[in-house]
Amino acid sequence: MIGKLTGTLSDKNPPQVLVDCGGVGYEVHVPMSTFYNLPAVGEKVSLLTHFVVREDAQI
User: Fold this and answer.
1) pLDDT for 6
2) DSSP string, the chain
3) How far apart are CA 53 and CA 38, in angstroms?
4) CATH class of this structure's domain 4-48
5) How many CB atoms lie within 10 A of CB 42?
6) Where are the domains of the chain?
7) How many CB atoms lie under 10 A from the CB of residue 34?
8) Is the pLDDT of residue 59 over 80?
């Protein structure tokens, strides 16, 4: 399970962000309250994550 991502914010498109961590891009859904408090694209960001695995989906 991935609990935290730290890297460069590559893209912001509500409600998703793309975080580049060592050359791997992670697409993360974030609440709008978090989205509006993120730094500008190209800046360093650190996000705590919660990965949900269901029988019919991974969200």
Assistant:
1) 98
2) ---EEEEEEEEEETTEEEEEETTEEEEEE--HHHHTTS--TTSEEEEE----B-SS-B-
3) 26
4) mainly beta
5) 9
6) 4-48
7) 14
8) no
pLDDT of residue 2: 87
CB–CB of 9/42 below 8 Å?
Answer: yes
Evaluate whether 48 touches 3 at the Cβ level (below 8 Å): yes
Task: Render pLDDT for 4-56 as a digit per residue (tens, 0 to 9).
Answer: 999 999 999 999 999 999 999 999 999 999 999 999 999 999 999 998 888 88
- Rounded to whole angstroms, the Cα distance separating 17 from 11 reads 6
What are the tokens at 29?
A: 């859904």
